[in-house]
Design brief:
This protein is α+β, with helices and mostly antiparallel strands. 59% of the residues lie in helices and 7% in strands. The radius of gyration is 32 Å and the shape is globular.
């Protein structure tokens, strides 16, 4: 192979292109890598030389490189000197690039297991240098992997997160190693009296704390320990932990044969570089109470407990929360932020130099984006806790939702920030140095542009993005005299011209396009409609009560995440309300509520339509800033019970339950789209809400049925009862917005009622179930509670609506098909007789998991059923992908999990979980390798996240993801995808979808034998 490389170099020297040179040489296993270099990556000659050095003196197998692996190796070879050096240092790292799942995220648990496996093989008496080398090798292996991910699958937030997790884990191992050694030498550290062990915590600051590390970032740390009251043998606790922190810092920062682990920066600790290396909790608290200033606020804004005793770290962060985010904005706090603005502006001016542009500190660079975000957080996050988000890109999303920046500003800042960080990564990976300088040298800039795949003029793109950042940043300065340093909406003064009847249509359209409306022509028509209504919020009629609302409403529309959707829903609300001025007076007197309402309209079609249909939800919206992020099942029960005090008649009670459900869905949705709820938290909240509604309605319809027919009893005279079982997403507590409720109804036994109109129990409970379904699904003035699906009952649509316990058990033992057994995995009682439900649960567990199965027949039948569902229900036709039924979709994951649950659930109780994610976690305990489980878990989360957003953002079928650009871009942006150079958010979403479903389908085929 080295001879081939020499031939290629000679041909390059003779003026041939790399593609032509490769075509003229003998093919070999690395030919795909050479072709990849010729197709995309810059610096072909340097890359060929790097490949030669990698091959020289090292044995490599003769397997041909698959396309993705070839691109990964080509990218690393062309990246500069650092990554090829790491590949030469340990040639086995080259094999990491062959992983077909190279682009998938690694979880913290996976990384932790990998590191623990490496350090577990070290001898007990290993010295610090050997231990540090093992940590550095772990870091470098993943550094290479993450660099390939950065080049091929650019996901800035994921790379920053995994780099931060690497730092956390190395730091945690170092702390454990050092504290154990020092404890052996001097005695374990203990608090005074009966205080127990003294503990040490490391708190990550800056980019490490925000989990957005660069490849060559230092890690900024603050060390705190429990107390000064105590000792460690012959050492005071301060002496003990000071020695420990110095050793930990040395292990991480000192060079070894692998390089180093992470450089540590301790200058953000109390008193900076002059202060002690660590402080007790009380000492640190005292320092910040006395001396804490504006820079300390900025530093602790991103603080995160990352290693050592995390509970102690969380205590320290919680203590300083009120200092960092004061609820009451005192004048001196605002003044401090203005001073910070001026100071940082002067620093940025000082960063200019003739040799190039500093991506971090230069004008229009990273620091300006970060400070604008931090200033708005420091001012507003005390009262709006959702804004206490350390990561810059996620914080920008939340500032947009809360109306503090416009959609255009958010998009421009986020896209510029991502571009600057990617340029920074290329500069740092070029030679392994922590640098932020983009040199003026044309050859370097051309190389950066080529490596980024930037089509067009790189210089023009950089200038345009810098100017956009400067413009938005300047709005902070122009607003510095106001109470909130709130940037006015772009073009807000211009927007008032829309109220001028003489403004030509084409000028109005251009004005709206500049303000961020994608469908400016349609927006002009809608605004005209609002202006023509004498009672509307934009009425041109002099003296109209709502006229004073015009400017703020136009500003908030321009600010919203999707101005077109926000305007459309505002028009719907205006037309629904008609001439009622009270709404506009309310909004005119409460700008924060106006902002939240318009943000809601620009974020979620589903919640907007709910609000337009039920404007009485304004009360919930007014309280949204302080409404709980999460409410327990008991809290929901208690709240609903309070609302139903007294003895309301059934119709009033059902209306109250519907209103309660609408308010709670709005609460969950607001926190969800605001970024405050994880996926599983939103599912759990919506599932608990459905259960509470069922629990409250069931006794009402039962009472009505008993009043008409009497109480049902068994043949022996004992009371007969019924339980409502939830299956599907309700059963597994994974319900999403507008999900149907999968229910089946089982009653205790045969008999008849004891009333004047005696009916058999089967008929009584059938009518009871029908009444319950009607109460849940009837469309009333307050809306419909839930659609109910009963097709999972015995015999499906052909079976009776209700079934006795005995018949239920007999049917499943003798007649049920495999899919019906699968469905029961998620069954749980949600209303009715819970004692009967518990008895059924126990029987279902024995039936589903403990009966012997024919493994081959199980595999074959499940695969047949899955393929049939794909063929008959996916209906993919080029216009959309089916998230649930399509190849590699959610059902692939469900069937994989359920196959192993049915196969091994009798032996491993952990597999009996109704939750897909919990069952996946249990599969990693000896059934599937952690890599496969991680691919399935991340894929399932990704698809469920799209499913949820399809419903809440666009109020569409939660199964169909459009494959065409129309409607896809806003969806992609709401999912966190951003424009990257010339690649649109929609294109990135589709690429990730195809990669994810391809990986899932590959695992499915491997398990089911295709």
């Amino acid at each position: 192979m080295l001879e081939v490389l020499d031939q290629i170099l000679a041909l390059l020297d003779a003026g041939e292109t790399l593609a032509d040179a490769v075509a003229q040489t003998r093919p070999g296993p690395f030919t795909p890598v050479l072709r990849a270099l010729s197709q995309r990556w810059p610096s072909p000659r340097a890359s060929i030389l790097a490949l030669g050095r990698l091959l020289d003196g090292h044995e490599h197998d003769d397997r041909e490189w698959p396309p993705m692996a070839a691109q990964a190796l080509a990218a690393l070879l062309s990246s500069g000197t650092e990554l090829p050096r790491l590949l030469r240092q340990r040639p086995r790292r080259v094999e990491l690039l062959r992983d077909p799942e190279l682009g998938r995220p690694w979880s913290r648990e996976e990384l932790a297991r990998d590191l623990e496996r490496r350090v577990a093989s070290l001898a007990d008496d290993v010295d610090e240098a050997a231990f540090a080398e093992r940590l550095a090798a772990f870091r470098n292996d993943h550094y290479v992997r993450l660099a390939a991910c950065e080049f091929l699958f650019p996901r800035l937030e994921q790379v920053g997160l995994e780099l931060a997790m690497l730092a956390d884990l190395c730091l945690d191992q170092a702390i454990a190693f050092v504290v154990e050694r020092l404890g052996r030498a001097h005695g374990p550290p203990r608090c005074g009296g009966e205080g127990g062990p003294a503990r040490l915590a490391a708190i990550a600051m800056g980019k490490h704390g925000a989990q957005e590390l660069n490849f060559c970032s230092d890690i900024d740390l603050v060390f705190v320990y429990t107390t000064d009251d105590g000792a460690a043998g012959d050492l005071s606790l301060h002496e003990f932990f000071s020695r420990a922190c110095r050793k930990v810092t040395r292990i991480l920062s000192d060079p070894n044969r692998e390089g180093l682990v992470f450089r540590v920066d301790l200058r953000l600790r109390p008193e900076g570089s002059r202060g002690p290396i660590c402080n007790s909790l009380e000492g640190a608290e005292r320092y910040y109470e006395t001396w804490g200033g504006p820079y300390d606020r900025l530093a602790w804004l991103k603080a995160r407990p990352c290693a050592g005793d995390l509970a102690l770290g969380r205590e320290m962060v919680a203590i300083l929360r009120p200092f960092v985010f004061p609820r009451a904005l005192r004048p001196e706090v605002v003044e401090q932020i203005r001073e910070l603005y001026g100071q940082i502006t002067r620093e940025l001016a000082g960063a200019r130099g003739p040799e190039g542009w500093n991506v971090k500190l230069g004008d229009g660079g990273i620091r300006q984006v970060e400070f604008l975000v931090q200033a708005l957080q420091l001012l507003h996050a005390g009262k709006r806790t959702a804004l206490q988000e350390p990561a810059t890109l996620r914080a920008l999303d939340k500032l947009l939702f809360h109306g503090l920046i416009t959609e255009r500003e958010q998009r421009q800042l986020a896209e510029a920030y991502e571009l600057w960080r990617r340029i920074e990564h290329r500069l740092q990976l070029r030679d392994g140095r922590q640098t932020h300088l983009l040199p003026d040298k044309p050859e370097v800039r051309e190389w950066i542009a080529g490596h980024l795949g930037l089509a067009g003029d790189f210089e023009q793109e950089v200038r345009r993005r810098r100017e956009q950042v400067r413009t938005v940043y300047a709005t902070l300065e122009s607003a510095a005299g106001g109470d909130a340093l709130e940037a006015p909406a772009a073009g807000s003064t211009e927007l008032e011209r829309l109220l001028d009847e003489t403004l030509p249509h084409d000028e109005a359209e251009a004005l709206l396009a500049r303000a961020g409306f994608a469908q400016a022509g349609r927006a002009v028509e809608l605004l005209e409609l609002l202006c023509e209504k004498p009672w509307g919020p934009l009425a041109r009629r002099p003296g109209a009560a709502s006229r004073r609302l015009a400017r703020p409403l136009l500003e908030e529309l321009a600010r919203s995440p999707d101005p077109d959707a926000a305007l459309r829903h505002t028009v719907e609300l205006v037309l629904r309300y008609g001439p009622y001025d009270g709404l506009w007076e309310l909004l005119d007197g409460n700008r924060a509520t106006l902002r939240l309402l318009v943000s809601l309209f620009g974020c979620s079609d589903h919640l907007a339509r709910m609000f337009v249909d039920h404007p009485e939800l304004m009360d919930r919206l007014l309280g949204a800033g302080s409404a709980e992020r999460e409410r327990s099942l008991e809290a929901l029960r208690d709240d609903l019970a309070r609302r139903l005090h007294g003895d309301p008649d059934p119709e009033q009670l059902l209306g109250a339950v519907r209103r309660f459900r609408n308010e709670e869905v709005l609460r969950v949705g607001l926190h969800d789209i605001g970024g405050d709820l994880a996926l599983e938290q939103a599912w759990g909240q919506l599932s608990d809400l459905a259960q509470v509604c069922l629990e409250r309605i069931y006794p009402v319809v039962l009472g009505e049925a008993e009043a008409r027919y009497g109480r049902p009893v068994h043949d022996d005279g004992t009371p007969a009862t019924m339980v409502v079982l939830g299956l599907g997403k309700l059963g597994s507590r994974e319900l999403t917005y507008a999900s149907d409720l999968d229910l089946i109804f089982v009653y205790s036994d045969e008999g008849e009622t004891d009333g004047a109109r005696r009916v058999a129990n089967a008929e009584f409970f059938a009518r009871l179930a029908q009444r319950l379904i009607g109460a849940l699904s009837a469309a009333m003035q307050d809306g419909r509670l839930y659609q109910v699906d009963t097709r999972l009952r015995p015999s499906g649509n052909q079976g009776t609506l209700v079934v006795s316990r005995r018949s239920f058990q007999t049917y499943h033992q003798r007649e049920a098909q495999l899919w019906e057994r699968q469905a029961l995995i998620k069954a749980r009682p949600v209303a009715g007789d819970l004692a009967l439900g518990a008895e059924l649960e126990r029987w279902i567990a024995r039936y589903v998991f403990e009966e012997e199965v024919d493994v081959e027949a199980l595999r074959r039948e499940m695969d047949r059923h899955r393929r049939r569902m794909e063929k008959e229900l996916a209906e993919e036709n080029g216009d959309f992908y089916n998230l649930k039924f399509g190849p590699g979709g959610l059902l692939d994951v469900d069937f994989i999990v359920q196959y192993f649950q049915l196969r091994y659930g009798g032996e491993q109780p952990g597999l009996r979980s109704r939750s897909t994610l919990s069952a996946l976690s249990a599969l990693s305990e000896g059934i599937l390798d952690s890599h496969t489980v991680s691919v399935l878990t991340s894929g399932y989360r990704f698809l469920r996240r799209i499913e949820s957003r399809l419903r809440i953002v666009r109020d569409r079928s939660a199964e169909r993801l459009p494959s065409q650009p129309e409607g896809l871009e806003v969806m992609a942006r709401r999912l966190g995808f951003r424009q990257q150079l010339d690649v649109t958010p929609g294109s990135r979403l589709l690429a990730d979808y195809q990669r994810t479903t391809g990986s899932i389908r590959g695992i499915y085929d491997g398990i089911f034998g295709r």
